[in-house]
Every structure is written in structure tokens, then in C-alpha cells.
Amino acid sequence: MIDPDAVLDARSARHILRRTGFGAPRNEVSSFTGLTRGQAADRLLAFPNTIIRPGGSSFRESHNRWVKSMVKSKAPLQQKLVLFWHDHFAVGYNKVGSVTNMAGYVALLHRHAKGNFRTLLKAMNRNAAMLEFLDTARNEKSQPNENYARELLELFTLGVHDLSAAGLENYRQADVVQIARAFTGWGYEYNSGLSYFEEGRHDYVEEYDGSPNFDRGPKVIFETVGGFGPAGRSFVVAGEGAGEIDAVIDILLEHLDSDGHNTTARRIARRLCEYFAHPEPTLAFVDEVISDSEFDSTWNCSALLRSLLVHDDFYATAAGPPYQSSSRKSVRWPIDYAVSTLRLLKMRPVGGSAQIRGGSYLSMVDHLDAMGQLLMEPPSVFGWDWETGWISSATLLARCTFARDVVASRYGSTRFRPEALIDMTLTVPGDIVDAVLDVLGVSDQIEAGERQVLIDYLSDDGARESLDLAKYEARQIKLTGLFALVLQSPAYQLQ
């Protein structure tokens, strides 16, 4: 149910801040508590578009610049949206081979993060990194390359299968072939990243160069699917040439599924619900946020996200312990885990290498690689595997290593400073545990038994009734260890 007037309590405030940003700092929880859902969503979505273009002389430098910009960002929701679109329009440096063009791709995601999906999609058609990654730059009229056309349908818009009718496909191979023709003739300048259209490389209907596979008939798509009727839809009604790629997008965004709903709107809304709310959202949830936001006609991503953030299903995952078998939580992405930790602890990576100066002294690129998520290097065009795909024995150990290194940092202005986070005059173990849980935003997510384990750690199983945090052992060993334990806890991995 859409309920923009429901008032946020502290638990709900923590939830919306965790899901739309990086952690839930206490001061922000206080400022959001008492707002209505609608007011909270409007405040979060009011960020100005800050364009981040993480260039550099190498992939590592570019990667670390992007991470550092997230740590200090004043618009964490923009960063979370950029990460979503990065996964949705997955592009990897290993094939693109240009830091400059990857930086331009990241800048494009920032520019359109909360804007119009139609506009973003059309801009992505012409982006240098995408032109290279999915081979549009090698799409020739004599031998069209179908890579971009296929992923445009399968991943970026329709999806393979109808969401309501099992086994019913949203497009045919013939549609892939025809759409590939629209993208012939496009390329880009390697140094500037500017795209261009070359008429001599474009597939025009009336041309024929003698090759056996060149004559592919009229440029018509969706003759048997999408609600267009048996005649389908031509994408050259306004003439052939550079405009065909925009015409294809306009037709795609009219495609209807077996329920008569807009196919792309349902798929994009569903993925956003999965990302911000919880895995496996119901179709009713998806359809309600589309209807409320009119996303299927306006393609306004901000309106869609606002409807999502005021829906009961979004707040259903805020429930804390005790958990039920039906409790739906999401595993934090590695970048979310790392950036949230640094922001909550008021720390920043050091230097051009974005190093954490404690423990193993690794840079952020190495920490995140070990956790399973290198930015600008997704494993495939499908992006990353979410949820349990983030967790293995190796990647969970890497998260624990990161937590250990962060709290072990003792040098420079970005060192770990617990005295800046909690009241150092606290002496009762239970009070100290509660203070640390509050700092890390999981006080409402820890079960009583887990809290007692942390108290037992601080008190040496009850042998100590109090701690003096001014003393070295209590501060540098016990308190530091407590922060690490919470950062490594299951509650902190989930949201």
C-alpha cells in the first residue's frame, strides 16, 4: 500500500537511510524521525546532480577516486542509484581499455541517475564505453553485430520472459537482427570519447553490396509480440540513418506484456524494488509503484523511487529481531559495506592509492576485489550476482579482514578514533555495547543473545563489572575489538 503520510519512527528512519545511503548516522536518524514517508523521500531525492568523472592514469587510480568520492559524498542516494545503473548497464574496463571513456560512462550515470529513463537509455546508446563494450563500434552493414541489440532487449529493457505468462518470450531472434541493423555505422573517437555516425557503414534498405546475407528486408520489429499487431512497427518511418537508434528506443518503451502492462516499466520497477526494498517483490508491489508514479508514461525515475519509498512493502524489511522465516533481508553489496563502514566511523582512505593504514595496509581496490566487487569491472554484461552471490567463505573472510584493518588504523588524520564516536566515560559493558551498536546503526537489528555475547566479550564473561576506557587495554584492545566484532556480525552484513 502507498502511504506517504505514515510517520517514521526511529527504526523506519534507520531503514530508509540504510537502504538509500551508506549506513544510518545517529544525527541523520534523529533528523528523519518524525517525518512522514513522503517528506523523507522528498528530502532524499532533492540532491543536486553532482557529476563524478573518476579519471586518472590507471584503472586502479580511477577506481580508488570513485570510491573516495562515495565516502565523502553529500548525496549518498545519488551514489546508490549510480551503482544500480552501473550494474544494470554493465560495462567493464578490461574490454573498454580506456580510463577516460570509463570515466565518461560513470559521469553519464551520475548525470541521469534520478532523471528520465528514456533519456538515459538513448544516451547509453551513444556512450563510448558502451559502444566498445558491446561491439557497436564493430557493427557493419555487411555483417551486423548483434551484441548490443540482444542486451538492449534482454537486459536493459524488456527482459527475456513475460513476467505474467510463464514461457512466453518478449522478443524473437528476428527482432534482434532488425535492431542490430539500426545500430550499424556508429563509432567513437578513442581520445575524446565522442560518438559519431558514419553513413557509409550504415545498413540502408535499398543498398546491396553483393554479400549473401545483406538483404534483410524492411526494418520492422515485434510483428508477433509486444501488442503491436501482426504488422509490427517500423523504426524508419521518419527516415533511415542516425535517428533509427532513438526510434528503436521509443518503440521498445511501448512494448506491452500479456497483461497489457508496459513491459520495460515493469522490469525496471521490479529491479529497483529488488535493489532498494527486498528480493522477490510481488508483482502487485511493482504495479502499485508504477501506477502511483506514472512511470510507464513519464519514465521519471525520481517519481518511481518516491512511490517505492512510501510503500508498505519497502518498510516491511525494517522489522528487527526476533526474525521469522519469512523475514526478508538483503546482503549488502561489498562497496556498500566498505563505504558505509568508513562513513560511520568518520574515516577516509589515505592517498592516491586509497589505502587503509592498518592491518594488511591494503588499498580500497584490493579490499573490494577480495570482497568480490571491483567497480568498473563487473564479471559480465549481466553485472554482479546479488544477495547470497556476494557471500562465500573467501569473500566473507575479506569483509572480516577489512573490518580488522579499519579499526587497526592508527596513523594520520583518518585513523580510527573511537573517542570521536562514543562517550568514553561509559564504564558498564552493556552501555558500551549499546553505544557501539548505535554508532553502527544496528541497535535494532541485534538479537538479545548476540548482544549478550558482545557484553561477555567486553566483561570477560562477567569477570569485569566495569571498564575504564581511558586505559590502553580497554580502549585499544577491548573497544577496538568490539567495533570489529559488530562490523563482522551477520546483522551488519544485512539490511
Report the total helices.
Answer: 24
- What is the rounded distance between the termini? 21 Å
- What Rg, in angstroms, do the CA atoms define? 25 Å
Arrangement of strands in the largest sheet: 1-2
Give the rounded overall mean pLDDT: 94
Return residue spans where pLDDT drops below 50 for at least 5 consecutive residues.
none
- Main β sheet profile: 2 strands, antiparallel
Could you please describe the fold and organization of this structure?
- The model has no long low-confidence stretch (mean pLDDT 94).
- The strands form 2 sheets. The chain has a two-stranded antiparallel sheet with strand order 1-2. Strands 3-4 form a two-stranded antiparallel sheet.
- Helix 20 runs antiparallel to helix 23 (472-488).
- Among the domains are: 129-243, no CATH class; 418-493, no CATH class.
- It has helices spanning 10-20, 26-32, 37-45, 59-72, 76-88, 93-96, 99-112, 117-125, 128-133, 147-156, 173-182, 244-252, 263-276, 283-293, 295-298, 301-309, 312-315, 334-344, 364-371, 393-408, 429-439, 448-459, 472-488, 490-493, and strands spanning 186-188, 195-197, 220-221, 233-234.
- 48% of the residues lie in helices and 2% in strands.
- It is globular and about 85 Å long.
- A hairpin with a 6-residue loop joins strand 1 (186-188) and strand 2.
- With 495 residues, the chain is an all-alpha fold.
- The two termini are 21 Å apart.
- The longest helix has 17 residues, at 472-488.
- It has 24 helices and 4 strands.
